[in-house]
């Protein structure tokens, strides 16, 4: 007599085995996140910090999105390669991301330049990985995932891994389909009908369209998954040559000629009508991405429990809005269409279409519109702020106006071509800014 199991048990058992196989496979991937760039186009926000450490969305740092993707994808061996102005980034990783079990070989660690191979700092993205190949040798992982630490998006890297296995590829490149008229600003991937890459062009004048879709092209997302055995020889060879030591410019084009390299079409875990991937490399792009978050239906969803975005959680009390009883005199603490973090007190002021980081004070009759205000900022009484980014630890004196007189703003602060005003971290403002004297 054969033993009969209830049919309901079989799917559960199959699912459990699938989870175990998935865990084992993802545990065989070593991840390096490139977080050492200067981020000069985001200056002055990057004057005292690396670009991946720049705050975003009130409570997050830019690096949090790549790290959250890794955790949500099941990746547990992650090295963040840091370099320029790395103190705040390193501190953030140690404080907010020390969450894995070292006894199981899991970790998220910031790794500065070791000078094990060269006395130089990282000369490019490929050189940064080459100088840290000792980590690959230590981990002995069969696959290497390379990510940029300064992009905002949601992606399950496990799907990319399955694509590499299905194609028997040496490498897979993350590809975002974009309107062909925008492709001149990106590295463009040319593919055949099977999505095998046959050419990589950096910012081409005449981008190659996706087969079967002449209106779109594939842009490289700066996400690369390699077989470790395949990539090591290319990194070693590139280090001996006078190249830019860049994955997009040097490594991938050479691998295309000699190996099997495929594009992986971006599968967006943000689950909106339009795919969301942002390289917020300029002040205006950074401001626009933050302003999207305060919309009724933002393009980027921070509120999805199925794809949580983690960060360091400071011990701040709840946000508070006071002086509603004085509304007839115009003194009422209120925030409309805004993101307001813990520790903020809106004390008789008005916030609209703005993002406030923790521990911000907005005082009597002050008004803040379409602005990003970072930690420990005080907006003085009767001040008016519009279309501004105010970095940490700034005190705005009473009766200050910012964003209403472009010429006056340009004499004191950084002002972009669009008129966006940016105030540096810790900048000392004085009462002479009071237009009434």
Automatic annotation (TrEMBL):
One of its GO terms (molecular function) is ATP binding. Pathway: Glycan biosynthesis; glycogen biosynthesis. Keywords: ATP-binding, Carbohydrate metabolism, Glycogen biosynthesis, Glycogen metabolism, Nucleotide-binding, Nucleotidyltransferase, Transferase. The keyword Nucleotide-binding applies. SUPFAM superfamilies: Nucleotide-diphospho-sugar transferases, Trimeric LpxA-like enzymes. The keyword Nucleotide-binding applies. Residues 317-423 form the Glucose-1-phosphate adenylyltransferase/Bifunctional protein GlmU-like C-terminal hexapeptide domain. Alpha-D-glucose 1-phosphate binds at residues 122, 187, 202-203, 220. Its EC number is 2.7.7.27. GO terms for biological process: glycogen biosynthetic process. It catalyses: alpha-D-glucose 1-phosphate + ATP + H(+) = ADP-alpha-D-glucose + diphosphate. Homotetramer. Belongs to the bacterial/plant glucose-1-phosphate adenylyltransferase family. Involved in the biosynthesis of ADP-glucose, a building block required for the elongation reactions to produce glycogen. Catalyzes the reaction between ATP and alpha-D-glucose 1-phosphate (G1P) to produce pyrophosphate and ADP-Glc. This is Glucose-1-phosphate adenylyltransferase. It comes from Nitrospira lenta.
């Amino acid at each position: 007599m054969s033993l009969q199991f209830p049919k309901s048990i079989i799917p559960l058992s199959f699912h459990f085995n699938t989870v175990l196989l998935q865990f084992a496979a993802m545990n065989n991937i070593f991840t390096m996140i490139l977080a050492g760039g200067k981020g000069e186009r985001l200056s002055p926000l990057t004057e005292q910090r690396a670009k991946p450490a720049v705050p975003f969305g009130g409570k997050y740092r830019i690096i949090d999105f790549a790290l959250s993707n890794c955790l949500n994808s099941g990746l547990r061996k992650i090295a963040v390669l840091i370099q320029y102005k790395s103190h705040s980034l390193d501190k953030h990783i140690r404080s907010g991301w020390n969450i894995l079990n070292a006894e199981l070989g899991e970790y998220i660690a910031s790794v500065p330049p070791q000078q094990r191979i060269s006395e130089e700092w990282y000369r490019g993205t490929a050189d940064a990985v080459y100088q840290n190949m000792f980590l690959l040798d230590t981990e002995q992982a069969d696959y290497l995932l390379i990510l940029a630490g300064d992009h905002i998006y949601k992606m399950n890297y496990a799907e990319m891994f399955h694509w590499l296995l299905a194609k028997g590829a040496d490498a897979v490149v993350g590809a975002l389909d974009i309107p062909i008229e925008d492709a001149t600003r990106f590295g463009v991937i040319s593919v055949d009908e099977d999505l095998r890459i046959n050419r990589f062009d950096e910012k081409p004048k005449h981008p190659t369209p996706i087969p079967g879709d002449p209106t779109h092209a594939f842009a490289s997302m700066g996400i690369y998954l390699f077989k470790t055995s395949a990539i090591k020889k290319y990194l070693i060879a590139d280090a001996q040559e006078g190249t830019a030591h860049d994955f997009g410019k040097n490594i991938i084009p050479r691998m295309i000629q000699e190996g099997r390299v495929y594009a992986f079409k971006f599968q967006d875990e943000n689950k909106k009508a339009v795919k969301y991937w942002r390289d917020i490399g300029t002040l205006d792009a950074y401001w626009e991405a933050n302003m999207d978050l305060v919309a009724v239906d933002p393009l980027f969803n921070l509120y999805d429990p199925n794809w949580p975005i983690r960060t360091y959680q400071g011990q701040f009390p709840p946000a508070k809005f006071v002086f509603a009883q004085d509304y007839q005199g115009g003194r009422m603490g209120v925030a409309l269409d805004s993101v307001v973090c813990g520790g903020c007190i809106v004390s008789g002021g008005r916030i609209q279409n703005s993002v406030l980081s923790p521990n911000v004070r907005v005082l009597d009759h002050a008004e803040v519109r379409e602005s990003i205000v970072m930690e420990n900022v005080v907006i003085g009484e009767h001040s008016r702020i519009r279309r501004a980014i105010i970095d940490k630890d700034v005190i705005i004196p009473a009766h200050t106006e910012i964003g209403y007189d472009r010429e006056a703003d340009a004499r004191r602060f950084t002002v972009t071509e669009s008129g966006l005003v940016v105030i540096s971290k810790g900048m000392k403002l004085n009462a002479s800014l009071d237009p009434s004297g």
